[in-house]
Amino acid sequence: MGAIRLEKVKKTFGTLDVIPGVDLDINDGEFVVFVGPSGCGKSTLLRLIAGLEDVTDGKILINGTDVANEAPAKRGLSMVFQSYALYPHMTVYNNIAFGLKMAGESKAVIDEKVQNAAKILNLTDYLERRPGALSGGQRQRVAIGRAIVRNPAAFLFDEPLSNLDAALRVNMRLEITGLHQELKTTMIYVTHDQVEAMTMADKIVVLQAGRVEQVGKPMELYNNPANKFVAGFIGSPKMNFLGGDYARKYDCHEVGIRPEHVAVSTESGDLPATVKIAEHLGAETYLHVNADGFGPMTVRATGEVPLGEHDKIWLTPERDRIHRFDANGIALGKL
Amino acid sequence: MSTRSSTLTGRIMSAPSIIALFLWMIVPLGMTIYFSFLRYNLLSPGMEEWVGTLNYEFFLTDPAFFASLANTLLLVGSVLVITVVGGVLLGLMLDQPIFGRGILRLLVIAPFFIMPTVNALVWKNLLMHPVSGMFAWIANSLGFQSIDWFSEAPLTAIIIMVSWQWLPFAVLILLTALQSLDRDQKEAAQMDGAGPVSIFFYITLPHLSRAITVVVLIETIFLLTVFAEIFVTTGGGPGLATTNIAFLVYTQALLQYDIGGASAGGIVAVVLANIVAIFLIRLIGKNLDR
Description:
heterodimer; A: Rossmann fold; CATH 2.40.50.140; 2 domains; six-stranded mixed β-sheet; globular; B: mainly alpha; MetI-like fold; two-stranded antiparallel ribbon; 2 strands; 73% helix; MetI-like (chain B)
């Protein structure tokens, strides 16, 4: 059981308002991802929930009890750190067992739980090793094992994959998602990588400058971003924004068009453009173009497209996929 | 230094300094060993003669030798315990964001820059003096009898002085080690439910083991040869109460003018130092391999 509720949580460092006041509901068993650019306060928010930072004001309710002034260990949460933070002088076994030992569990109980966690995470053969003798992915798993054995109300992940190489990151992403399906425990996951957010989350919380910009399911955020910031942050490559005459045609200040929602033609279309760079990936082609009168745009075409530098093309955005924004960057709803 | 020619060049280039260092070490050592087998007394010049191991027999069967060996070990051991324990505690304090930390750090480090003779004089005349010392004044104003440190607890007095001198070194090394402790590790331990005491014993202390090893090894080397503090304050007495091996060799050579006996004592001291070094490296040197 782990339902977490933040009520007007505030954090200031001196005169700096890092988190001006966040309200958030996290349901039991949900996989929630905090995402945002670096310095947006997502890690601070996680540390506030963990109890590693004191809240300046507001309530943190775990299963209905306010824990804002409780010690970290009393909150029943487990955390996986970006640096893993394994204890270098202890074996893997003792690393995983440490929390149980501190809780005063008996040797037999500790052994059973550690062996069980090791089995889930494929660490059984490495229990007697020290962290220094493990690979990055194995260390990551030890850190997760240390979190699992305490049987927490919720797991907190602080950018856990950012120290891994690209291939391993994809693997661990799947493993963590699998773990969530198996354990069905609430998980809060902080990342700056919107791909991780989109692929793993039940619910994404987009943060900017300590404020919650939008909360929703991944596809909700993708299809109906509440503002220009969310629209630009979710989705890769980034959404294109066009102002001026083109926007006026749609009765708004600016329109946003995702690169994947633009049809490319060599003969005719809405917007004439010149290809600057074409990135051929096989399954898809990214065209970085210069739209006449609007400047640089990115377009994603399916499959192989025989286009290169200086080629003249025409772009036609899908009409019902166009996002409209007012002068303040607030979404106006679709056509 | 990968190719054969560059390795050779490297050897040739470093040879002069290595040869100089080697001579610097081997000539005095060779002469000392040679003298230790002679009857060589400055009071009877020109009477030097080969006496075999007689000097060693005298030195090693002298009751003063065992007394001074015991004193040496007691002095080294006590100072090591005091400086390591005190160093860890002071290091922990100076690692906290406390008021006036910069000045405090400076004050803690300062004793290391005071030369041993001056250190001993300050303690002897200003602090531990039974009439005009500060400790006597404190004792008297609290209604106690003042202690005459150098006659009632001479070795303790020496230990206190030497510890004061070496505590900064331990603090300096241990503080830098503390500062390199990953904050995440402490936070992870906090999440795991460890209190400050558990964090200290399970996280901080193991992290410090390497630095403590360095402190113990380096201090031992210097503490085996403590001399100035003894010379300035107690002169090895009363009786033999504060005579360590280094001081015993000094009395042999310069108070009895017995160069042969002093050389034998010096060689014995070298052998003892090596035994201690081997023992220490066996015991704690493995900490350095990690």
